[in-house]
Task: structure prediction
Amino acid sequence: MYVEKTSVHGRKSFAITGLSDFRSSTFEVREQGRDGFRIWKGPMTFDSSTMLKTIMNSKAKPFQVNSVWHPVWTSGLVVAAFLAGGTVQDASAETHQVRDRGTTLVEAESYLAVSEVPPKIEPSERCSGNSNLEYFWANSWFELEIETPRMLNYRMSLRAASDKGTQIEVQRVDGAGKAISLATIDVPGSGSYTDYQTTRDVAVSLPSGLHRLRFENVSQGVNVDYITFSAGAIDDIVTVNPVATDGPDINPLKGFNTGWWRNENYASVGFQYIEWGKLEPQDDLFDWDYVEKEVLAREGTRGRHMILQFVVDWDYREPVDSNYLGPAWLREMVGEVSGIADPKDSKSRQMRATPYNDPVFIEEAIEAIGALCDHYKDDPRTFVIQVGVLGFWGEWHTFPREDWSPTASTKQVILNTYLNDIGKDGLTQVRYPDDPICFPRKGMGYTNGTATLSDHGYEFGDAIERRKLWKNGPVGGEWPPNVELNLWERFFQTDEGERFIRTARYSTLLPPEPKEIAEKLPSWNQDRQFMKMHRLMGYNFQATAVRHLVSADDSGLAHIEVDLHNTGIAPFYKKWSVQLAVLNAKTLNVVGLVETDTDLRLMGPGDSITLAGSCIATLDPREEYQIGLRILQTDADEFKASPWKLDARNVYVVLANDVKVMDGQWKESETPQEGWKLQGGWNMLGEIEFRLPNEPQSVEDDFFPLQGSFRP
Result:
């Protein structure tokens, strides 16, 4: 079969071709314009319910066939193939702004999409806009895209004509294509398809933002003229503003961290070196038990997110025999460089290092880095894998023997290896923000080995802030050894330390042990000064407003909005889940859950977003309920064979608000084969109180017999 039509202006033509055997067919849609032909081909399996239709459409909208877009000419004829179960979508459909006061009218023919049996747009002087959706049959639907400025209750009605009468179900379609029923509109029979009537209002509650509303016909045919949205009272929105704080003492992926064998109860992050010689004792044979049982089992890291540094050489202050942390087989292959620390001073001590620019060393380093990243990049404990392996402590320098340093080309190869191997959402850190090799890249942060009030410390911070390097990855560092006493005083007993942290936007920092600070500074107050800086670092999420509506219909829809503000000095660098919920205040069970698609990595310091969602929450006015917000590590609440090797407190975020928090814990299912998952971790943002339907209400309230109020 072959169908071809040409527009009246002769500018474009469309053709649909196909085999005569409809049971197994292919077809082609061909567009001819000034730029030549555009063709889409595809196989079709036809059955008796499949049609090949030619539709006259005066508006000549762009259309979509099986998820492939095709524009059409500005006027004339549209030829399209409709498959069973397919849809036609209007690429030029406008988003209708629904006002929060008065009534908004939306023409039905300005649809975003229609179902597999598309109704025709019929000219009609009886209708608003002189047209309507004609012969809208049973089980077919159309969709509109609307945007509401705020969460609100609306009264919705249709102007429609149906011979025998029908019902139209109103649904809201989420980003995953799931339809949630909002209301059902009764269209009375009028004895004809030209006698239009306005239906009785139905109650619809909508959060703020973009919405895709579907209108699905339940039974008999109907023509639809327009839809109206009448805004309810602004008082229907119940708002609370949680009390702000400067943040909790413990939150994941931020603050003063620990390292090695140190175990500080304020720390959620631990730093550890991984020695190449122990990781790969034989060429291509990796000992992961060494990492798990010796390194990550240390108190400084156990149960925490980890920052890992891969090293092959220590520094010259150690005994010569302990300088080398690499495998013996590697030393045999590449040898070593050695000499006195200061060539001008014959009495300076001996030191040695690995020849980092040796091609064999580089090749083996690439393999080892790849193995390390492959093993730990998806481990839930991993926060950062630092760019290391070159230089003393993996820090890319061989001070004071700079003649042994890795070349720029060697550094580039090693850096590229880390960036390629940590994965698209992985994080790494380099040391030198002004090094041309270390230009900004996604996922790459920086770490300062001299994080104190020295010239280098300030230069590092200035470079981070001047070039906005904190936007791509987390900034960290450590307090260096042999620091003068006056620097201790300025850092830990004045606001200079706080300014230092703000300038470089540190997310983590390895400090001296608190007992060491207390020994040097007897008047030092850990809770007032140290912990203030600890809370300052990284992100701080604060709920500034919480709003809700509870629908009155049988669906039990709960609409929740939370304004979230990052009061911290840095972004949140991981993609974690953000959930809203309605919880039973007594049992703490979740009775309605909203999985938002929020990406907190997009929230820089000072940024705000509104979390919004709707959930089915069957609420009993005799019970008490709480609005909950949970930010948790992705998949922490999914069942797994065993709990992660992370303390439960380190997989969810506590807000910078004075609110109750439901403590999180790893809990095994009562069904053993399901396994373990995180329970709890909710920030409880306020209680919903209900007015019972038989309590006095105003005329305005009568339309929504079950209303909620909110108290913190």
User: Anything to note?
Assistant: Residues 359-376 form the longest helix (18 residues). The chain has four domains: 1-88, 93-232, 257-525, 541-711.
